[in-house]
Amino acid sequence: FRAGTKRMLLAYRVIHLMYGTSYFFQLGPLIMPDPHKCNLPLALQLPFLPPDRNMVYYCINYAHHLLLNTIGVFILLPMDGVLIVALLNICTRIAALQLLLEELDTKLGTVQWQQTAHLDAELNRIIELHIDTKRFARVIYETYQMHFFSMFSVLCFVICMCMNVVARDPRSTLIPFGLASTGQLFVICMLGNVLYIVSDRLKDSVYGIRWYRCTVSQQKRLL
């Protein structure tokens, strides 16, 4: 659990760094000016304040884009950060279950058949941790179900839009934005896939121990 806590803290710091780099998108007009967007980061301008009229209007529009970016970061960072940390937490719990099963298997190999009543406490600990992990995973799924749907829909739309623009203009300023969206989608999909693989291995860990040496009641609770 200590190693899992360190991994979760590291992941959360990396997420902070990834979302913090989104502010480099604001430097796009300086690196790759785009007159179609009035040299602004986004193709968006405030009404009645055209940025190409004077420098004051341009600065106001630029500050507006910076504010939108900040709001987006402060909204998405806690949501995606908690989601990623929760997925890592579930993986850590499953790894702890596998470790407890290995320890139980070692002890089962040193006792006589059907003489395992003294291992009830360890078996109950494994079962309780498994139930808590399933409950926690269900809460995460129910909480982030709509977030998953909206995030994947928006990211897929953004990636397709960026690819369409970049195909027409390879020097488009949307390239960093498209890469950031692809990276966000990749991280969520990768962690979900890792969780699926780890949870699938848990069944093999359960059937891999010498459960047949337990008492009948323990076998029923374990399997």
Automatic annotation (TrEMBL):
Broad class of the protein's primary localization: membrane
Pfam family, one: 7tm_6
Superkingdom classification of source: Eukaryota
Record InterPro entries: 7tm6_olfct_rcpt
Localization: Cell membrane
GO MF annotation list: odorant binding; olfactory receptor activity
GO biological process: signal transduction
GO CC terms in record: plasma membrane
Residues spanning the membrane: 12-32, 55-77, 148-167, 174-198
PANTHER family: ODORANT RECEPTOR, ODORANT RECEPTOR 19A-RELATED
Name of the protein in question: Gustatory receptor 45
